[in-house]
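ligand=4'-deoxy-4'-aminopyridoxal-5'-phosphate
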Amino acid sequence: RYQSLAYSRVLEIHKQHLSPVLTAYFPEPLLLHQGHMEWLFDHEGNRYLDFFSGIVTVSVGHCHPKVNAAAQRQLGRLWHTSSVFFHPLIHEYAEKLSALLPEPLKVIFLVNSGSEANDLAVLMARAHSNSTDIISFRGAYHGCSPYALGLTNVGIYKMDLPHGMGCQPTMCPDVFRGPWGGSHCRDSPVQTIRKCSCAPDCCQAKDQYIEQFKDTLSTSVAKSIAGFFAEPIQGVNGFVQYPKGFLKDAFELVRERGGVCIADEVQTGFGRLGSHFWGFQTHDVLPDIVTMAKGIGNGFPMAAVVTTPEIAKSLAKRLLHFNTFGGNPVACAIGSAVLEVIKEENLQENSQEVGTYMLLKLAKLRDEFEIVGDVRGKGLMIGIEMVKDKTFRIAPSMCITKPEADFAVEVFRSALIQHMKRRAK
Ligand code: PMP
């Protein structure tokens, strides 16, 4: 605990000088002072087990000692090269990151945020395809910058101001909420069967969703399109999963129209899904562009776009593209340390083991409480959908343990019991 501004003063300053939009999330947000791995500490010294990791961002734990040391070392040497000069850390990082991606995804563009990464991916898709139209799912969040806002299809972010020209939404193949429902995949550990005896299995539902996708292609976009954006699991919308095989078929249809396929791995990448390092691998597809942010820097502002040499050349042929801070040496030192920690501490394996363990425990709540409509997800990306309320998203740092998962499930369960009691009164 250390001396600093009192909570009341912080709130006052916030009201006067900071974005009024931010308190729309929480009227009285936590005032955080410190973090250590999966723990956070507030201004009164209370500790919290962080099960949302700064919105799916702190991948290896708050202030991980190895990541801290790498940042501190580089802060004492050189902060900034303005991306036009070389620095060995940038090149080392590019080599390490590209080694984690399959051929031909080998060219890396370093930027500073997920929105920026997606903006750049839009530019690349258009430069490469010589077309304009881009498709993204309803319910998708791809950022708040002007291009990315066009791809984002979440009502609360859609301002009635010009943005996102050429972006078209398409139906999200949501196996829980979608009109054709369907169970979760047979190979999902949860196998959530909807409480409807006529629900088709997810493969049958997939065909219906693909028909909708074809409908978007034939009615809402030009004959040739620039691309299609998809997250492997939809993040902001409540960790929504698609039927098996959907992305594979959709990628084929997009490519038939000359478009490129973009996987937004901002939330799903870096081992969080457990079985694979990248979310697109869980769908058995190979995108043409992959965007990444959040977990890449464990909370430090950095992001990347990875693409093929051919697409990178299409952009370079047009004109210069420049980014002052993207890939600065401090970010690259941090990014490298994060990759090392994920490997050395087997965090992808931990995501798989603890995530599946927790998913199965949480799935039991569905049978116990009527208001728990669905429990889904993969690795440490778990969604709990309340049927008369919001969706809970669980995505802790990948270093959490089974006892901590037990504790979190018990806390969640007792909150549900209290909620039900209050409702019954
Ligand atoms: N894509 C996804 C899937 C995201 O979840 C987010 C952020 N929530 C973004 C893009 C935008 O990232 P940023 O906030 O770093 O611009």
